[in-house]
């Protein structure tokens, strides 16, 4: 008498077999992890979700004092606080997605060894939960934008704000792709765990977060332009503040780069998934 199984788990046949349909069937688990990550961020804290608002304001305040007042870096004529808050809002989402997903295998080895589910569920849920954080920081940014506009500052939001979803797709895809590449390589080379934290910090200085692209000239400009996050930060400021040294067309380069990194990342992740428990 045959047995009727509701779920049959088979070994993967090839490392390019992504099984995206299976990932869709586990969407409820994705949302469960999203809720877990969101609640865990402020659990057992006194101020709770207010940390989502306090952190960007304090970081931007420090940037304004150090880079705006002491170092006196150019902000293209924009109010320094608003200039740094725009860059910080965008950069924080990307960096948080990258650093959080880069430890997927090592942080969840115990869970992965006990129960089966598509491993991509974990990094995908992290990127989605970070979108909620980005949304809260974005509301803070809009609040200060309205304040500065009502105070007479020369900031000019325009129709380019409609490409905000493109910004989110690039940031999420780039953070996820790079994160799962690092996570896959970390199963064998733990040194990468030490590199990620300050590597992301160094990458921020290679992105026009604390300075405008217009201030970069000469031999270093090509290096800044090669950074796929440069068009994202610059066109975000163009859309909401009205000033940028870069055309939104450059976002096509970021999109192509993101797609390539994401494809490579998923393929490597899928390959490592088969035997990572032997090396973690």
Structure, explained:
- With 280 residues, the chain is mainly α.
- The chain contains 12 helices and no strands.
- Helix 2 crosses helix 7 (121-150) and helix 4 runs parallel beside helix 8.
- The two termini are 41 Å apart.
- The model has no long low-confidence stretch (mean pLDDT 85).
> Helix amount, in percent?
55-70%
Query: Shape, please?
Result: globular
Structural class: mainly alpha
Strand content: under 5%
Give the tally of β-strands: 0
Spatial extent as radius of gyration: 21 Å
Tally of helical segments? 12
SSE pattern:
HHHHHHHHHHHH
- Major sheet size, sense and barrel closure: none
Task: Produce a short descriptive summary.
The protein is an all-alpha fold and 280 residues long.
Outline the fold blueprint:
Blueprint: H1 20-25, H2 27-42, H3 51-70, H4 80-101, H5 104-107, H6 109-112, H7 121-150, H8 164-186, H9 191-205, H10 221-226, H11 229-241, H12 251-273
Core attributes:
12 helices, mainly alpha, globular
């Amino acid at each position: 008498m045959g047995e009727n199984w509701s779920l049959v788990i088979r070994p993967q046949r090839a490392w390019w077999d992504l099984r995206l349909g299976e990932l869709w069937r586990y969407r409820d688990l994705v949302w469960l992890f999203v809720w877990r990550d969101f609640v865990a961020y402020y659990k057992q804290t006194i101020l709770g979700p207010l940390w989502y608002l306090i952190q960007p304001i304090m970081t931007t305040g420090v940037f304004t004092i150090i880079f705006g007042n002491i170092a006196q870096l150019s902000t293209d004529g924009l109010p320094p606080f608003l200039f740094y808050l725009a860059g910080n809002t965008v950069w924080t989402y990307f960096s948080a997605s990258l650093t959080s997903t880069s430890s997927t295998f090592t942080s969840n080895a115990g869970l992965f060894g006990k129960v089966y589910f598509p491993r991509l569920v974990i990094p995908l849920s992290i990127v989605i939960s970070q979108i909620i954080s980005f949304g809260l920081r974005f509301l803070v940014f809009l609040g200060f934008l309205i304040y500065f506009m009502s105070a007479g500052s020369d900031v000019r939001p325009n129709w380019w704000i409609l490409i905000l979803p493109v910004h989110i797709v690039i940031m999420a895809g780039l953070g996820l792709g790079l994160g799962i590449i690092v996570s896959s390589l970390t199963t064998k080379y733990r040194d990468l765990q030490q590199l990620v934290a300050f590597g992301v910090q160094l990458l921020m200085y290679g992105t026009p977060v604390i300075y405008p692209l217009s201030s970069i000239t000469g031999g270093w400009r090509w290096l800044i332009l090669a950074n796929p996050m440069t068009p994202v930060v610059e066109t975000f400021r163009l859309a909401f503040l009205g000033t940028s040294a870069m055309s939104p067309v450059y976002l096509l380069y970021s999109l192509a780069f993101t797609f390539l990194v994401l494809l490579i990342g998923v393929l490597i992740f899928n390959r490592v998934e088969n035997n990572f428990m032997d090396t973690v």
